[in-house]
């Protein structure tokens, strides 16, 4: 029996398994030595006295700045570690902030000055007069033409070559990713030019790249988009899965699985020939199946209803591997994690805090009320399972296109089984919306998050056709969606009933979530006015913010059009990859209808469109 057949059987029948868990070490002090729960094997970038000292002294405003610094070429990792041990001995362990800062300056290259991610040309980039950005000529609003051109040119600013770095991942005997301990750099090499998001994100991030690819395809940068996709396939070949980004400290956690969606976007793009699309499918299929298998082996959970009548295998976010859960601070959020741990009276609870932080980061919702007072790995997220449903459906299509009908049928069955499980456990027929599910409590979690509309975006239908007009109309008329879409500057990540001040909560709007909602309903003509109004609200924030400082940001405040979003983890980042990609895609969907909305009248027009849409459906 194939592994896919086994997975299908597990989804269909009762499945019980006791997974061995590593006991938390008792009586720990603030600094943790190496153990199986480290983020990676690097004694500089993932654990160790040097990392702990630099980060807890607060030498950098952002913990990510240090772990993104490569070791200077004249030193080896062992030389740096020995030199730091000497410094500690010379000062009897009483290191000053000044002495540690001098040590870092002597042995490391500033992350902003490092040449491990060099700016590089995009060989398929063309200006609009040469055939680049063809949608430019269809956009009716001159302000949005200006914005589109800015984004098109911004790709050149965000392009990086990462082919020559010190970090080269290997694959261990067990098939899991292993990273050498003596790495002088946290940046993992990639064979093709990458597009970074910007700001503090100097690497190729997995989740961000799906939305970036959407924009690259609108810009007609099909070769660049193909390279971005093949970079992630290459990481699967070398590491066994796709890490959250090509950094060694992401070596044991991933991000929402969207590589199959990237491949599908590429092959369906009108600027890609049928032959080119089929070739990419054939090139990536082995890696895609391997990534899918990783998610099913490392991130599965048995879900049961309270009455014991229903059960299924679905997926969760976790930190680390099943055999080695994460028990250390996240390197890129080291100081924040240690500060949170210091507020806990019982050191034995630190492992849970660190594990939760890393699992939340794997969801990309790294700071959100969505994960308050729960263990993240106990929560079955709507969006993750919707993405895996899309993954399975697209794998079926890919295998069908290559003539492998047996594998196509296997994956089609898996997609239908998952869709039925999502409907059984995550759909709430009372509120006409999906909810995350608490495995431990055996019930749905309260509260609406915009990620809950992911099944519509993923077209995740089983016995219930959720893409039918009647079903879409029920979701459209839900109180959740009515409340979420009432703001002038976009749709917030969460509802406003419990303002948390956390990054992935109200009042922040994120570009990927806007496009998921718009594309989920845009296929049905009856919802066109509504989807246009949603798109216009966010486009108003983007353009009016761009007018102010010629920058696009990773998040916006829905209550104040054009204002950057807030959050306690890090300030709003400019650049910004996913916002660039989503903005171009929205202009491609509505080239004649969207406008810069730089006037109060335009904003009022959008609100009137929203009210009209609600009136029609009620």
Q: How would you describe this protein?
A:
It is a single chain. With about 625 residues, the protein is mostly helical. About 45% of the residues lie in helices and about 5% in strands. The chain has 21 helices and 16 strands. Strands 1-2-5 form a three-stranded antiparallel β-sheet. It has a three-stranded antiparallel β-sheet with strand order 10-13-14. Strands 3-4 form a two-stranded antiparallel ribbon. The chain is globular and about 75 Å long.
Q: Describe the strand arrangement of the main beta sheet, using strand numbers.
A: 1-2-5
Count of individual beta strands: 16
Please mark out the parts with pLDDT under 50 across 5 or more consecutive residues, or reply none: 12-33, 598-603, 609-618
Shape: globular
Keywords summarizing the entry:
single chain, 618 residues, mainly alpha, three-stranded antiparallel beta sheet
Quick structural overview:
The chain has 618 residues and is mainly α.
Question: What's the arrangement of secondary structure elements?
Answer:
Blueprint: H1 3-12, H2 49-56, H3 63-67, H4 77-90, H5 97-107, E1 118-119, H6 142-158, E2 159-161, E3 170-171, E4 177-178, E5 194-195, H7 206-218, H8 222-239, H9 259-268, H10 274-298, E6 300-304, E7 311-315, E8 320-321, E9 324-325, H11 334-342, H12 350-362, E10 379-380, H13 382-401, H14 405-425, E11 427-428, E12 433-434, E13 437-438, E14 443-444, H15 454-457, H16 469-476, H17 479-484, E15 508-509, H18 511-522, H19 528-549, E16 556-557, H20 577-589, H21 600-617
Antiparallel strand pairs: 1-2, 2-5, 3-4, 6-7, 8-9, 10-13, 11-12, 13-14, 15-16
């Amino acid at each position: 029996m194939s592994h896919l057949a086994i997975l299908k059987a597990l989804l269909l029948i009762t499945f019980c398994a006791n997974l061995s868990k590593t006991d938390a070490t008792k009586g720990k002090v603030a600094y943790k030595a190496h153990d199986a729960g480290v983020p990676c094997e690097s004694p500089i970038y993932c654990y160790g006295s040097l990392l702990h000292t630099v980060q807890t002294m607060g030498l950098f405003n952002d913990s990510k700045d240090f772990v993104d610094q490569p070791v200077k070429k004249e030193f080896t990792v062992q030389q740096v570690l020995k030199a730091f041990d000497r410094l500690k001995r010379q000062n009897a362990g009483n290191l000053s902030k000044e002495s540690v800062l001098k040590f870092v300056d002597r042995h490391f290259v500033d992350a902003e000055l490092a040449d491990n991610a060099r700016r590089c040309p995009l060989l398929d980039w063309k200006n609009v007069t040469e055939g680049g950005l063809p949608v430019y000529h269809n956009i009716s609003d001159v302000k949005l033409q200006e914005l589109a051109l800015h984004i098109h040119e911004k790709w050149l600013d965000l392009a990086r070559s990462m082919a020559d770095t010190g970090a080269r991942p290997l694959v261990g005997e067990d098939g899991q990713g292993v990273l050498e301990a003596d790495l002088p750099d946290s940046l993992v090499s990639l064979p093709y030019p990458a597009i970074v998001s910007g700001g503090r994100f100097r690497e190729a991030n997995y989740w961000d790249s799906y939305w970036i690819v959407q924009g690259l395809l609108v810009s007609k940068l099909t070769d660049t988009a193909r390279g971005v996709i093949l970079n992630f396939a290459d990481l699967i070949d070398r590491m066994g899965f796709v890490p959250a980004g090509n950094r060694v400290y992401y070596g044991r956690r991933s991000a929402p699985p969207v590589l199959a969606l990237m491949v599908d976007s590429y092959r369906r793009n009108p600027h890609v020939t049928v032959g080119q699309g089929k070739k990419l499918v054939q090139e990536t299929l082995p890696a895609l199946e391997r990534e899918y298998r990783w998610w099913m082996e490392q991130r599965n959970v048995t879900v049961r209803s309270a009455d014991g009548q229903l059960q299924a295998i679905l997926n969760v976010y976790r930190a680390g591997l099943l055999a080695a859960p994460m028990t250390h601070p996240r390197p890129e959020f080291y100081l924040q994690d240690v500060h949170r741990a210091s507020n806990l009276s019982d050191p034995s609870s630190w492992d849970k805090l660190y594990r939760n932080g890393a699992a939340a980061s794997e969801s990309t919702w790294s700071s959100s009320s969505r994960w308050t007072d729960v263990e993240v790995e106990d929560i079955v997220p709507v969006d993750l399972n919707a993405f895996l449903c899309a993954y399975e459906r697209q794998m079926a299509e890919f295998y069908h296109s290559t003539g492998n009908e047996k594998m196509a049928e296997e994956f089609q069955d898996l997609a239908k089984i998952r869709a039925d499980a999502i409907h059984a456990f995550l759909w709430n027929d009372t509120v006409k919306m999906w909810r995350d599910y608490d495995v431990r409590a055996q019930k749905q979690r309260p509260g609406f998050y915009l990620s809950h509309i992911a099944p519509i975006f993923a077209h995740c239908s089983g016995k219930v056709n959720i893409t039918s007009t009647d079903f879409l109309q029920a979701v459209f008329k839900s109180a959740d969606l009515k409340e979420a879409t009432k703001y002038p500057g976009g749709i917030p990540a969460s509802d406003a009933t419990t303002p948390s001040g956390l990054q992935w909560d109200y009042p922040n709007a994120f570009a990927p979530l806007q496009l998921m909602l718009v594309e989920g309903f845009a296929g049905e003509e009856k919802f066109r006015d509504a989807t246009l109004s949603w798109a216009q609200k966010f486009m108003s924030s983007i353009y009016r913010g761009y007018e102010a400082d010629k920058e696009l940001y990773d998040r916006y405040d829905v209550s104040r059009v054009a204002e950057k979003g807030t959050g306690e983890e890090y300030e709003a980042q400019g650049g910004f990859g996913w916002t660039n990609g989503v903005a171009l895609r929205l202009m491609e969907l509505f080239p004649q209808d969207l406008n810069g909305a730089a006037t109060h009248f335009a904003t009022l027009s959008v609100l009137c469109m929203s009210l009209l849409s609600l009136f029609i459906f009620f």
